[in-house]
């Protein structure tokens, strides 16, 4: 049986990489997927991939780093689909690797905006609707960098750590509403974005994984599918590691 049959799932940054893998999996689980991506072409291509597999999807070319754009997105989705059951906050930006004194203020601000503020914005606009319906599943994408604090990518590590704090707080805040909020902390996943940190940092991060390999987007998507489903009924404010053994505590 498909776990989220006829539910509406909003997935940010779903035009490629991890977001696309999550969107494809949620579609396979019966969900109607809303592809939200800044790249309009990538968004439409994602829709076509889902439809080619018999799924339902629509795309919105939206900059979730803009509060005005996110405010406009929510009513558009609700007017077209009538409801939002699932929100996957996947948009992120892996900053280039460098010691903190060498990181620019612009990199710091961009990292906080794209990795953290985007999730705050999307939660803010969709939570009232979920609470009104007494049901919702929110999955925030954090990172092992947010738990361990990776050197040379301090802006990224800081933003991802803040996502964990936001998730825990929201989980408690919404605990009696029927809306569950959890986050995932992947280690290095094999996507194009993972290469942006630079080869040296990239190899260092893989070296921390006992399984001695990168994770696959589909492996992460499988975990997200559970967290986004009604089966995830007694877990909120939780942090789920998917790290190839790196997280052993």
What does this protein structure show overall?
This protein is α/β, with parallel strands linked by helices and 249 residues long. The chain has one domain (8-242): NAD(P)-binding Rossmann-like Domain (Rossmann fold, 3-Layer(aba) Sandwich). It has eight helices and seven strands, in the order βαβαβαβαβααβααβ. It has helices at 17-28, 40-52, 67-81, 105-133, 144-148, 154-173, 199-207, 217-227; strands at residues 8-12, 32-37, 56-61, 86-89, 136-141, 179-186, 239-242. Strands 3-2-1-4-5-6-7 form a seven-stranded parallel beta sheet, sandwiched between helices. α1 packs across α8 (217-227) and α3 (67-81) packs parallel to α4 (105-133). The longest helix is centred in the middle third of the chain and has 29 residues, at 105-133. It is globular and about 50 Å long. It starts with 7 loop residues before the first strand and ends in a 7-residue tail after the last strand. The mean pLDDT is 94.
CA gyration radius, whole angstroms: 17 Å
- Please, how many domains? 1
Whole-number average pLDDT?
Answer: 94
CATH-defined fold name: Rossmann fold
Tell me the span between the first and last alpha carbons.
34 Å
Main sheet?
7 strands, parallel
Instruction: Give the CATH superfamily.
Output: NAD(P)-binding Rossmann-like Domain
Second-tier CATH architecture: 3-Layer(aba) Sandwich
CATH class equals Alpha Beta
Q: Strand fraction band?
A: 15-25%
């Amino acid at each position: 049986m498909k776990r989220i049959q006829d539910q509406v799932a909003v997935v940010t940054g779903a035009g490629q990489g991890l977001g696309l893998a999550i969107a494809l999996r949620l579609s396979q689980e019966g969900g109607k997927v809303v592809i939200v991506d800044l790249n309009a072409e990538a968004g439409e291509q994602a829709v076509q991939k889902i439809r080619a597999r018999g799924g339902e999807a629509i795309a919105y070319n939206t900059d979730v780093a803009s509060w005005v754009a996110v405010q406009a997105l929510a009513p558009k989705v609700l007017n077209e689909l009538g409801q939002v059951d699932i929100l996957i906050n996947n948009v992120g930006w892996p900053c280039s690797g460098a010691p903190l004194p060498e990181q620019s203020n612009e990199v710091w601000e961009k990292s906080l905006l794209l990795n953290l503020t985007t999730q705050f914005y999307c939660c803010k606009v969709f939570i009232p609707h979920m609470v009104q319906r007494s049901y919702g599943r929110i999955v925030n994408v954090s990172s092992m960098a947010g738990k361990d604090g990776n050197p040379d990518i301090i802006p990224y590590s800081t933003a991802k750590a803040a996502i964990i704090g936001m998730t825990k707080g929201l989980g408690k805040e919404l605990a009696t509403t029927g809306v569950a909020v959890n986050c995932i902390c992947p280690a290095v996943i094999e996507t194009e974005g993972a290469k942006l940190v630079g080869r040296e940092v990239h190899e260092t991060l893989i070296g921390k994984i006992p399984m001695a390999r990168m994770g696959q987007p589909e492996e992460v998507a499988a975990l997200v599918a559970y967290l986004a489903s009604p089966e995830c009924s007694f877990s909120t404010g939780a942090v789920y590691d998917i790290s190839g053994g790196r997280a052993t505590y």
